[in-house]
Specification:
2 copies of one chain form a homodimer. In chain A, strand 8 and strand 9 form a beta hairpin. Chain A contains 22 helices and 18 strands. With 583 residues, chain A is α+β, with helices and mostly antiparallel strands.
Amino acid sequence: MSNKPYKGFEPKWLLTPAPEGSYRSIFRWGDPEFFKYPKESLYNLMKETFKMTDDDFKDYTDDIGFDQVDLSEYPSKLAKKHVDALKKIVGDAFVTTEDYPRLAVAYGCTGYDLLRLRHKQIENVPDAVVYPDTTAQVEDIVAYCVKNKIPLYVYGGGSSVTRGMEAVKGGVTLDMRKRFNKVISFNEVDQTITVQAGMSGPKLEETLNNAQSIFGAKRAYTCGHFPQSFEYSSVGGWTVTRGAGQNSSYYGTIADIVLSQKYATPIGRIQTSHYPREATGPNLNQIMMGSEGTFGVLTEVTLKVFRYMPENRKRFSYMFKDWKTAMEAAREMMQCECGFSSVFRLSDPEETHLMLKLYNVDETPLEPILDKLGYRDMERCMFLGFTDGEKGFSRNVAKNIAKIALQHGGFPMTGYVTKSWEKGRFNDPYLRDTLMDFSIITDTLECTVNWSNMEQVHRDVRKVCHALPNTVVTTHMSHCYPQGANLYFIFITKMNDADEFKRYHTTILDAIQKSGAAISHHHGIGKMFAPWLEGYIGEKEYGVFKTLKNYFDPDYMMNPGGTIGLDLKPEEKKFLNERKDYR
Amino acid sequence: MSNKPYKGFEPKWLLTPAPEGSYRSIFRWGDPEFFKYPKESLYNLMKETFKMTDDDFKDYTDDIGFDQVDLSEYPSKLAKKHVDALKKIVGDAFVTTEDYPRLAVAYGCTGYDLLRLRHKQIENVPDAVVYPDTTAQVEDIVAYCVKNKIPLYVYGGGSSVTRGMEAVKGGVTLDMRKRFNKVISFNEVDQTITVQAGMSGPKLEETLNNAQSIFGAKRAYTCGHFPQSFEYSSVGGWTVTRGAGQNSSYYGTIADIVLSQKYATPIGRIQTSHYPREATGPNLNQIMMGSEGTFGVLTEVTLKVFRYMPENRKRFSYMFKDWKTAMEAAREMMQCECGFSSVFRLSDPEETHLMLKLYNVDETPLEPILDKLGYRDMERCMFLGFTDGEKGFSRNVAKNIAKIALQHGGFPMTGYVTKSWEKGRFNDPYLRDTLMDFSIITDTLECTVNWSNMEQVHRDVRKVCHALPNTVVTTHMSHCYPQGANLYFIFITKMNDADEFKRYHTTILDAIQKSGAAISHHHGIGKMFAPWLEGYIGEKEYGVFKTLKNYFDPDYMMNPGGTIGLDLKPEEKKFLNERKDYR
């Protein structure tokens, strides 16, 4: 990352690629050659916020994880006959019990995961990693594992923030990245593509953008699904967790984009139908999405695709005077039926404060102008986004957004802020790694809130966060709908102990639950949010999930150990007697 | 209905209101004072098609059902203690075992139902009818019926075309029309309304249109859901069958419009969550929708509402030269991302032929002009619709539709045709009653088809229909999506025997199934389509429905007797080995 040189002291930012085979190569995000660190004003803000000095940034808090992964204390317990049997299914080269590949698929990306890996707290690793190539192979593996009572996990892109794929019972993890990432078919007439579940975001998008040369298509397409984790996420992960991309206000969440799915389950292949709508009983697509690997392994997904028309994109950004007015403007934009913009992101005052530094607006003449016009720091709210779709549609959305923003006292900030946001949208996780070397940890929690409950959830959750020590919490609203939106909390704190962090994280999560919001808009449940799920859904309602589990996987071999709470003990569950119900 | 006087012989159209308490008052559609009969050119077409003469229209084929309902041969079998217990729950006046109210809720509106009623083929009537007032009462009734093994059915609006609510096991039918039709709450901030399940379409729409005076709202709203059965359909029926309104291309089907639901099930109250999207496991809303009363009784529904802006509506209609070109234009309109029109209806050549007569276009100078320009009868295809939404959005959709229509050789037919369609959109069922007096019966079947399969399904189904004796079959595409659309077949034949009609109906349904279409887009499954469902969904996939049934209603007391196939015997099921799979 290119950055202006610091005027004062510059911390010992770690800008050396992690050695192959090292712990760091696992816990750091993405591209080994890419680094990101804060600019000086942000660095100064952090020192101030967390009461740190330059001295705290002279050396790393801990071991930076450059040593080679060593799991000699955690040897594979999978019997040789099983390893051999799995090799017979996928080929000798595609089953391994070696240390590095086992640890490489053991953890996701929540703060708890990263802290454990940094401290070599190896709690859960699979005994073997298998790299399937075909749907038939996955089906054979599922059948074999169930028959032999071997727990089975799936690693898609590795960006889970819910401990969704953590192999807490050992057994086998399918690593989908290596081979299970192929296009199965492309149908331009129906505008659909069918892919293996391990297909990565960037490979899918590149394929669709180049549909003309690859498939002889008439035009280029886009997948429309761009989560922040895009570069290291998979279609399978998107689907089973009910993910949402940052452009979801226009394209929909993955639950809207998926047309059909194929699963390898203990009771055999499950194939959902592939029609845009039907009236044929309960919707099987919507039953399988959200199962997070507990009903079986997702093998193939048919996705809707969209026309790739970046030339029609209209960028916008506005500053509002306060959160209440900004929320009202956002709601009007969502309810006025002018069509939806693609990215739609409204930051609260605390996030706006940080963003203006992050995007260098604090160094431009805009800052004093905003002040003068009454858009005051720690009150003002930044709103940004862009439109997609056909030219006239896109223009009409932007036009209405402008009109509504102005009616609500929004100050036009030009496309510059949006472009700055776009630059960082997929690489913020790199900054997180750099800061963690000095015990500054960033994590996120998010939830769905309806409009009439928005102000209260925002207030309640922030109140709890600010009562925690050393906490910066920024919030934005994104993934918006006529009935509500996602509230996304980013919290930054100074902390280094995994268990302490887990307790901290739990406190905030508890606050979200009690506020009456939906427990997750798009991160899913995994093992981390599972204790709250039954309390959120309701006991009889949750019984539906158990019933489905018992149908598909009566031996509990599919992603066992707490995912979506199916095999939690009663004492591991939290019930939300204090939960607000605003209806 | 005002009509021009016939020049020639005018049939003895029945234009006398059916007496209160008569059979006819049950089997005829809607408003007792409203009648509709064909204009002369259509009458002549029918005579020609069905090889009938004026003599056939001199008198009715059968008894017209003016006599009083008499179920003395089918007395109520419900023990007095049960009747008394039910009265204790809802009040003495709201439980009845009398003949008329029992027969009034026994049948729906498929041709088989109407023919049976016309011939007094009383096969299935409930033993008692209960008129609940509150959700608590419904919950008590469900608990009582389950405890005492009394089958429980629900009658919402009575417009089922799938025998969905037919009380084949006797027992109790809840008639929701009388009292279970109230607004529970209205939330203008979230743009939602919560209603009891028996709320009728017109009452809901009237309430929303008058939200300002009723709720003190800032503006007027619309429900956005207008099935042809609108005037005699209920929110509960829409929801449990996964219905779609004629404006669904813009507003979505009911599965898109419903935000949350409450059910009284044998295991207790089930309340789904009420957020626009969430990532909290399988989607319970989508599990309950489509259950068609077999998991429990739907009590309350929260629906999204939309701004009522009829002033923004743009009507359009175009004539295309042939079905293939018309389909291509329709697909481009759906895939170009300009937004969707509200009504979007494309008729095939045979339907176009009939429509031009129905809307009197055959009597205007347009007819020879169309011929001259190469839009030939029985080749040309009529396309019509209108837009909704914010002014600029609506205009942009209409503009793009115009552009694409012209690119595909569409000839603008002005808003006249659309307005004619609008006039008849909710009252065509009256015409059906009038014609049935002379053994001319109309019925419909519909299915979802993806674009790449559209031509084949249309061809295959029509081929089978045309091999049947005396059959007119018209087809239109409506409820359209980027990936496909609903194909709606209307067939008209000369037939009077219920069982003969059932066999006839089965033949067409079989053809739809074999063609590879989705078995139903929005009519649901009921008892009529149930034999095909497992074959369509797949055996293991269908097992999910059975599993859910066993969870909610292990004693099979909720809408028992074949609905969605849950308690069908193996020999009653049809399997579709011949089914095409075009993927």
